[in-house]
């Protein structure tokens, strides 16, 4: 997978969280991920397809990270993964994908997006929408970690 394809997703997640939640995020080193088990506690996943490319984006948050983001974005103290948290993860996933879609359209890719799904719980599985390689990028915040997975064929 080419960096010019991955970078719009990374730029978009940084933009969304720094702008909407006033959270400083630090990306780690991208790596290939073989297993389907999530590294966090709640995941938003969304499928994307164009005439020649299909795949998905997943954003997995640790509880600590998403609780802090929820407090910053919604002004609410959250202490459990509940409907407020899952709705927020779905909305963040949608905003990130929309931003990446806009940047990718400038490169000539025209994607249709699905509605994001959210999965929560310890050791949940992430089912990507393609058979391509999964690239995972860890991110750190002052409150905890989250992970972005990109899988396209």
Characterization of the model:
The protein is of the alpha+beta class. It has a single domain (3-152), classed as CheC-like (Chemotaxis protein chec, 3-Layer(aba) Sandwich). The chain has 3 helices and 8 strands, in the order αββββααββββ. It has helices at 3-20, 63-74, 83-105; strands at residues 26-27, 31-33, 42-49, 54-61, 112-113, 117-120, 134-140, 145-152. Strands 1, 2, 3, 4, 5, 6, 7 and 8 form an 8-stranded antiparallel β-sheet that branches. Helix 1 (3-20) crosses helix 3 (83-105). The longest helix has 23 residues, at 83-105. It is globular and about 45 Å long.
Search tags:
globular; Chemotaxis protein chec; 35% helix; 153 residues; 8 strands; alpha+beta; 3 helices; eight-stranded antiparallel sheet
Topology:
Elements lengths: L2 H18 L5 E2 L3 E3 L8 E8 L4 E8 L1 H12 L8 H23 L6 E2 L3 E4 L13 E7 L4 E8 L1
Helix pairs in contact: 1-3
The count of β-strands is: 8
Provide the succession of SSEs: HEEEEHHEEEE
CATH topology: Chemotaxis protein chec
Low-pLDDT windows of residues: none
Structural class given helices, strands, pairing?
A: alpha+beta
Describe the sheet with the most strands. 8 strands, antiparallel
Fraction of residues in H or I helices:
25-40%
Going by CATH, the architecture would be 3-Layer(aba) Sandwich
Rg (C-alpha, Å) = 14 Å
User: For the record, what is the CATH homologous superfamily label?
Assistant: CheC-like
Percent range for β-strand residues: 25-35%
* DSSP helical segment count: 3
Compute the separation of the termini in Å: 8 Å
Tally of domains: 1
What is the arithmetic mean of pLDDT?
92
Q: What is the CATH class name?
A: Alpha Beta
General form: globular
């Amino acid at each position: 997978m080419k960096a010019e394809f991955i970078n719009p997703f990374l730029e978009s997640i940084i933009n969304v969280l720094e702008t909407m939640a006033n959270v400083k995020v630090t990306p780690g080193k991208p790596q290939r991920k073989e297993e389907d088990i999530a590294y966090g506690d709640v995941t938003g996943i969304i499928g994307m397809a164009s005439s020649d490319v299909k795949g998905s984006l997943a954003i997995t948050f640790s509880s600590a990270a998403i609780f802090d983001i929820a407090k910053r974005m919604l002004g609410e103290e959250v202490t459990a993964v509940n409907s407020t948290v899952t709705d927020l993860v779905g909305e963040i996933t949608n905003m990130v994908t929309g931003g990446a879609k806009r940047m990718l359209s400038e490169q000539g890719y025209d994607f249709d997006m699905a509605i994001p799904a959210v999965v929560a719980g310890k050791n949940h599985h992430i089912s990507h929408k393609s058979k391509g390689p999964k690239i995972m990028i860890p991110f750190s915040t002052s409150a905890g970690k989250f992970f972005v997975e990109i899988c396209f064929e």
